[in-house]
Amino acid sequence: MVYKFIKQGDVFIHTMCEGKLLYNLGFTPGDIIGKTLHDFFPDDYAATKHQYYLKAWDGNYVHYESKIEGVYHVGSLRPVLSNGEVVEVIGSSINVTEQLPGSTHEISQTIESARPSVKRDLMIKQSNNIIFIPLMEIIFIERIGRKSVIHTTSKKFETYEALTSLCQVLDERFIGCHRSYIINMDYLEVIKLNKQSYIGYFKNYTKNAKISKNKLIELQKYKSY
Question: Which of 28, 100, 170, 187 is the most buried (most CB within 10 A)?
């Protein structure tokens, strides 16, 4: 199930919802769109989920697991930024009920394995220092010679770690779009064809990144949700 919501005052309003899980829970899009959590969920469940929404609206990627109406599901919330501010959150939920074995311990293990780990910062080493870079501030990373240059909203950082190593510790908003680039999809604004190559341009940032042709479909799919 995929859904979107925005914040109006102190409440969150859903603007889109679709997917099989929606119907598994006994809802239709009309039951969700234009409404708040308390309009269609029990108060205790809505209050819990509201806390997840608040964290996402603060710019954090949120991953959680829950059970309602006998359905176990794993969910994630991805904030969408514009000019450095969250303007929308895209949520997704996966029904894991059929994958679950019988015991409570086994259920917990299965849900945990389906839930991505939550990361807020990228940790790099510079000389004798350990630096923590907030993921939401990273625009893109490029490989220049033997160094990886991390472009953020405030400054650049350099590390000798390979792009492949960095890609493994970043979350799903980051895509290796070229052998020399990893981009934060939340900042990607335009892709332009430049002769025989593609160039990615970012919101409020003058530098750009190369994009491989074979990555276009993956980038388009990400942006379509």
Answer: 187
| DSSP assignment letter at 219 | H
pLDDT tens digit sequence for 32-68: 999 999 999 999 999 999 999 999 999 888 888 888 8
**Token digits for 177?**
């779009």
Q: Which domains does the chain have, with CATH numbers?
A: 2-114 (3.30.450.20), 121-223 (2.40.50.1020)
Which of 63, 95, 94, 67 has the alpha carbon at shortest distance from 77?
63
Expressed in percent and rounded to 5, the helix, strand and coil fractions of the chain are 30, 45, 25
Contact 62, 76 (CB under 8 A): yes
Q: CA-CA distance, 116 to 104, in Å (whole number)?
A: 20
